[in-house]
Amino acid sequence: MAPKILLVDDDPDIRDVVTMLLDAQGYETVAACDGIECLAALRAEEPDLMIIDLLMPKMDGFAVLKELEDGRWSKYRHIPILILSSVREEASRRRYELETALEFNVDDYVEKPINPEVLLERVQRLLNKNKKT
Amino acid sequence: MTTESGGRTAPIERERPGLTPEESALIVRIGVFVKMRWLAIAGVLIASLLATQVFDIRFSLVPIYIICAVMTLYNFLFLYQSRHLNAEASGWLPETLAVPLRLLLTIPKATSPLIEKARATGNVHIIVDLAALTVLLHYTGGIENPFIFYFVFHVILAGILLHYRVAYLIATWAILLVLLLVGLEYYEVIPHVHLEGFAAAGLHQQNSYILSVLIALSTCLYASAYMVTSISGELRKRQREVVALQQKGLTEKTRELEEAGKEVTKLEEGRQHLLRFLAIASHDLKAPLSAVQSYIQLMLGGFSGELTDKQKQMLNRSSTRITEQLELISDLLDISRIEGGQMVKEIEDVSLSQIVTDSVENVRAMATDKNIKLSIRMPPYLPKVKASGARLKQAITNLLGNAVKFTPENGAVLLRVTEQNGDILTEVMDTGTGISADDLPKIFDDFYRGGDREKTGTGLGLSIVRRVVEAHGGKIRAESPNPEDEQGRGSKFTFTLPHSVVIAGKERRRRGRVRNQKK
């Protein structure tokens, strides 16, 4: 069965690009526009990987990460998270740690604009890693 | 005969905690009354003995002794009372009596009940003393006794130690008491004690004498009251002015501080507002470009079908332009953030060797593409520094990136880190085209791109490096050609981080270095 990837981004063009890219590789892609949809889709779809943007309306990626730290999401904790953002990784890390006092615990971080090869390679790596463990 | 004389200094009594300066000063003054009374009693005894034994003035000493004993007794009482003066016990008789007196003399109400009480006590002391002196005079010749003028001391003390208007009251009391005494003796209601061997007999019924003494006494007392009043009134006025000035100064300083505080808050709010604005602007400026760039990359990657070479070429050019634009936005926002003071928040303890290694890794691929030899030389143990790790990495990466960019294929780029007198020196050297003498002084300016327009770049890279270094209290300079290059090629960029950012810690192992030397 093809791995299922949950893609969360408020930018429809980015959703389009990533979906095209992942579909071409034979992955099944589920898209969401914000953090609230993301959490709903997480429950409904139980994906193998999440690709999450950070700056989004309603509920942003930081809030999703914080929410997932909560005990009631422990069931989904094994699902790897890849952050896809135009914000630099260090800046995001500092912001998250300053605001929540939690560790910025993500499996990978890819900065936009998207380089197809790089993104696919990282996705592949995360899926393989999770399969092994 | 003397009453209250001498003892001019007011010794500091045990400071009672929780009293205002005015309250404790008043209590000290009550203590002064008590001390002076001891002196007065001793004076009376000495004067009486001298008068009878040395000057052979004859009068009975028994009443004197009795009066002195009474004075001693009530002085002990006053002493006890002054030590236990407190505001709690109310309804004390002198205090109640003092209220109409205060109203009569239009003395402003005391600022605390304790002061009220102390003032009332002072009044009682003086009135009792007036009575004692009058009785004493009665037994020592009445109007014949020149010590009758000693009432002046009561007036002066009242003027100095109590409220100045009380001085007039005391003067009036004294005159009334003397009038009573002299009147009663004159009309022989009470017996007259004659100072035999001192004054002529019958003086107490000699009208002209009595009148002159009374006039002299009254004028003396009122004049004293006036003088004391004006002097101590002036003093008190000065004192109040000084206090008021101090208060005013304090209020002004407080207000200035408050205003400065508000200003700082406003500035900080403005800064926060700017940084929030920049964060949003950054995202919104980059997002569309990112999307376009992502599409282009998708097409170039062949994910949307085959492309002709012409199409590929055009898309590659578009991609390059967009990358440049994204870099420009990043650089502009970086400069705004640094200028906005964001770096202060980013300062933490960072490992310099880690930063150096990461920076080199950032340009490794670029160097490999051009077959440029990229080498690092640094001591095995570099200290930790207080710095913005991200910015420092950005600065070193920028310098290395420039070096690689301006060095032809098969060249070499060297990064060297050393410690000099506690400062940390970072040098980036290359074997590249170098910088012309015209360009050299301007390369750290914003948007300065040098004569070689062939190379891409925003012209902000080095100005960001300069800002980062300066924000850490360091200095940067460039040399071209690189003075260390044997063939006189390339350029050398050197920046220092001052020893103040260095954390002396476990990472530093080398000894013998000048560590505490000041810059």
Quick one: how many beta strands of chain A?
Answer: 5
Please tally the helical runs of chain A, counting DSSP H or I stretches of 4 or more residues.
5
> What's the CATH class of chain A, please?
Alpha Beta
Q: Tell me the β content of chain A.
A: 15-25%
Overall pLDDT metric of chain A? 88
Count of discrete domains of chain A: 1
Question: Roughly what percent helix of chain B?
Answer: 55-70%
Helix content of chain A: 40-55%
Strand content of chain B: 5-15%
Low-pLDDT stretches of chain A are none
Low-confidence stretches of chain B: 1-15, 506-519
Distance between the termini of chain A: 18 Å
Mean pLDDT of chain B: 81
Intertermini distance of chain B: 80 Å
Major sheet summary line of chain A: 5 strands, parallel
Radius of gyration of chain A: 14 Å
Sheet with the most strands, sense and barrel status of chain B: 5 strands, mixed
Tell me the name of the CATH homologous superfamily of chain A.
Response regulator
Topology of this protein?
The complex is a heterodimer of chains A (133) and B (519).
Chain A: E1 4-8, H1 12-24, E2 28-32, H2 35-45, E3 49-52, H3 61-68, E4 81-85, H4 89-100, E5 108-111, H5 116-132
Chain B: H1 21-54, H2 62-83, H3 93-104, H4 113-139, H5 151-161, H6 164-186, H7 207-300, H8 309-339, H9 343-346, E1 348-351, H10 352-369, E2 373-377, E3 384-387, H11 389-405, E4 412-420, E5 423-430, H12 461-471, E6 475-479, E7 492-497, E8 502-503
Parallel strand pairs in B: 2-4
Antiparallel strand pairs in B: 1-3, 3-8, 4-5, 5-7, 6-7
